[in-house]
Design a protein that fits this description.
The chain is of the alpha/beta class. Helix 11 packs across helix 12 (351-365). 48% of the residues are buried. It contains twelve helices and twelve strands. The strands form two sheets. It has a ten-stranded mixed β-sheet with strand order 2-1-3-12-11-4-5-10-8-9, sandwiched between helices. It has a two-stranded antiparallel ribbon with strand order 6-7. The structure holds 3-isopropylmalic acid and magnesium ion (MG).
């Protein structure tokens, strides 16, 4: 089969890590007999510099014409003023909204070989394997924003609004995922304070009783969740939560994995094909890391693993996705790692060497068919 992938390398280390993911995808294509046609677009700071806009219309058009989007990272110190009219993050928020990517999947697994890289004690981390499903196109991120100057001083407000339909569709994504895992769903909210959270709870309880009686539903307040993520992280299976809580909790959860350089993400739209595939944007959860950009030492594994998610969710290529994941595993076992996860026993190599090692591991593996 032939597929078209929109590639948005973005800023900082984005281009370096995306290059390695594409390298691995090309090898997967050869092994399994697919053609991945890639077309590059601008997003973020580099797009601002070139066009004045963080998400040029041409980029959006390119994405709409593609089967999936692979993104590096956006942002950097030169565009960092939060009061600026145009900012790189607007590109990211804009593309999520424009493509209808409401479901953000952020899996957090602690690889047994990296137990010592986390700031948490290894015995707390054994068995950590959770999936955070974050609502991505609603809530306080996208509600009306206001700011006014009065005689008594300035005021500002950000509206947090959720509709029943928005809650239902994200809960279904999370509950479907729970079914394929340990069958546990944790709704995280602030129902003791927020009306939107009380809406989430009542809708979720009803929907789960009706459609997912086989999935065990629990809820937790977001502040308690922040604590339990560190206290007993292995107990979590699937977490579903609103946009801003998901943003905060996933940065916290990422520390369990030792390095943000290990964690992929998928941002999915509605299922659009009979085979269950859907439009999606795939990116590492780390940022553009301007401090190490251009030095060839960024960890490309989060982006490579994001490419695996792309194959699985947007192209329906399950064996191919699993091949990448197994190749990443083999690379870690071989001790081919970047500085963020290096140990005295495993000295660091560069971004490209890690990409080469994963690509070779895919080659060595065969098609498995
Ligand atoms: C993320 C990021 C973005 C967000 C920023 C860059 C707008 O933190 O993807 O988690 O808050 O969603
Ligand atoms: Mg974030």
């Amino acid at each position: 089969m032939e597929y078209t992938i929109a590639v948005l390398p973005g800023d900082g280390i984005g281009p370096e890590v995306v290059r390695e993911a594409l390298k691995v995808m090309q090898v997967v294509g050869q092994r399994f007999g697919h053609t991945f046609t890639t077309r590059e677009g601008l997003i973020g700071g580099i797009a601002i510099d070139a066009t004045g806009l963080p998400l040029p219309a041409a980029t959006l058009h390119l994405c709409e014409q593609s089967d999936a989007v692979l993104l590096g990272a956006v942002g950097g110190p030169q565009w960092d003023n939060p009061n600026a009219e145009v900012r790189p993050e607007q590109g990211l928020l804009g593309i999520r909204k424009a493509l209808g990517l409401f479901a953000n999947l952020r899996p957090v697994k602690v690889h047994p070989l990296l137990l010592d890289s986390s700031p948490l004690r290894p015995e707390r981390l054994a068995g950590v394997d959770m999936l955070v499903v974050r609502e991505l196109t609603g809530g306080i991120y996208f509600g009306e924003k206001r700011r006014e100057r009065t005689d008594a001083g300035e005021w500002a407000s950000d509206l947090c609004l959720y509709t029943q339909a928005e809650v239902e569709r994200i809960v279904r994504v999370a509950a479907d995922a729970a079914r394929t895992r340990r069958g546990k769903l944790m709704l995280v909210d602030k129902a003791n304070v927020l009306e939107t959270s009380r809406l989430w709870r009542s809708i979720t309880v009803g929907l789960m009783q009706q459609e997912y009686p086989d999935v065990q539903l629990e809820y937790m307040l977001v502040d308690a969740c922040a604590m339990h993520l560190l206290r007993r992280p292995a107990d979590f299976d699937v977490i579903v939560t609103e946009n801003m809580f998901g943003d905060i909790l996933t940065d916290e959860a990422s520390m369990l994995a030792g390095s943000m350089g290990m964690l992929p993400s998928a941002s999915l739209g509605a299922v659009s094909a009979a085979d269950g595939t859907r439009m999606g944007l795939y990116e590492p959860i780390h940022g553009s890391a301007p401090d190490i950009a251009g030095q060839g030492k960024a960890n490309p594994l989060a982006t490579i693993l994001s490419a695996a998610l792309l194959l699985r969710y947007s192209l329906g290529l399950k064996a191919e996705a699993a091949a990448i994941e197994a190749a990443v595993d083999a690379t870690l076992h071989a001790g081919v790692v970047t500085a963020d996860i290096a140990t005295p026993k495993q000295p660091p190599v560069g971004t490209a060497q890690v990409g080469d090692a994963v690509a070779q591991a895919v080659e060595a593996m065969g098609t498995g068919q």
